[in-house]
From TrEMBL:
Pfam families according to UniProt: Ig_3
Signal among keywords: yes
The name this protein goes by in its record: Ig-like domain-containing protein
Ranges annotated as spanning the membrane: 31-48, 60-80
Protein keywords: Disulfide bond, Glycoprotein, Immunoglobulin domain, Membrane, Signal, Transmembrane, Transmembrane helix
Source taxon at top rank: Eukaryota
Domain Ig-like: residue ranges: 52-146, 150-248
Organism whose genome encodes this protein: Meganyctiphanes norvegica (Northern krill)
InterPro entries attached to this UniProt entry: Ig-like_dom (IPR007110), Ig-like_dom_sf (IPR036179), Ig-like_fold (IPR013783), Ig_sub (IPR003599), Ig_sub2 (IPR003598), IgSF_CEA-related (IPR052598)
């Protein structure tokens, strides 16, 4: 109901409901204890981001986690994109931290699992810098540097996204089963939609399932192919990190006798 009310106000005022949420959470942030806000960030990022959404719209879970991060820290650094195999350096550089501060680093709000120097992480410059080595998809998430006295927290949003190109042409025989795979992967989990000759697919003949990376609707199939099924099939992928953009890959399906 709250979401519907915000959408109505958005239509009247021309303000997006995400902008309304920014205002609401910034106001609440002045009165809600920081530990409670931190708990909400963790829950929204790890649970609510799986709530279904329509393409090209930020999921409520991930959007809420970003908004709460803005409230909780004043500003969220990033987002930083992971390039597999390379290193990623995060710097905790706020002047509020004193010279004698002891900076701690955590990932995704896991207080019981402080990041330590090992073959994955380097703690540099008196722990003010975290170097994530040999990065991969599992390194995506929210990183936090913090100090208890004086109390300070700074967050970094790190994401992973990849989309491999489909084969440019697929040739099948009439009455064959056609199977198309969109090799998308990402964290936060991206959303996929399919088009044929530039139009969204809405026929009940099409079946969808998740790919090996657990991306919903990333595999498209249909039975009893006919000449009419020939055409250009496009997989469009939308990432929560860049909701105003989309990425795509296409293949031309040729149905022969």
């Amino acid at each position: 109901q709250v979401r519907k009310v915000l959408q109505v106000f958005s239509q009247i005022t021309g303000t997006t409901y995400l902008q309304w949420l920014v205002l609401i959470y910034r106001t609440l942030g002045e009165s809600i204890p920081q530990m409670f806000l931190q708990w909400l960030i963790l829950i929204s990022f790890n649970v609510l981001r799986f709530v279904p959404r329509s393409p090209n719209k930020m999921s409520w879970g991930y959007g809420l986690s970003i908004l709460l991060a803005l409230v909780y820290t004043g500003a969220a650094e990033g987002p930083y994109k992971i390039t597999p195999g390379s290193a990623l350096l995060l710097t905790c550089n706020d002047t509020k931290i004193g010279v004698d501060a002891y900076v701690e680093w955590i990932k995704d709000g896991e207080d019981d699992n402080m990041l330590k120097a090992d073959n994955k992480y380097e703690l540099l410059a008196d722990r003010y810098k975290l170097n994530i080595m040999d990065t991969g998809p599992d390194d995506a998430g929210f990183y936090e540097c913090r100090n208890k006295s004086p109390q300070f927290t700074m967050q970094f949003s790190v994401f992973y996204f990849n989309l491999e190109n489909m084969e440019p042409v697929m040739t099948v025989t009439e009455n064959d089963v056609v199977e198309l795979k969109c090799l998308a992967n990402g964290k936060p989990i991206p959303t996929v939609q399919w088009l044929k000759d530039g139009k969204k697919l809405n026929d009940s003949k099409y079946e969808y399932k998740a790919n090996e990376n657990l991306i919903s609707n990333a595999e498209l199939s249909f039975k009893n192919a006919t000449k009419k099924d020939g055409g250009n099939y496009t997989c469009q992928v939308f990432s929560d990190v860049e909701p105003d953009k989309h990425f795509s890959t296409s293949t031309y399906v040729c149905v022969c006798k």
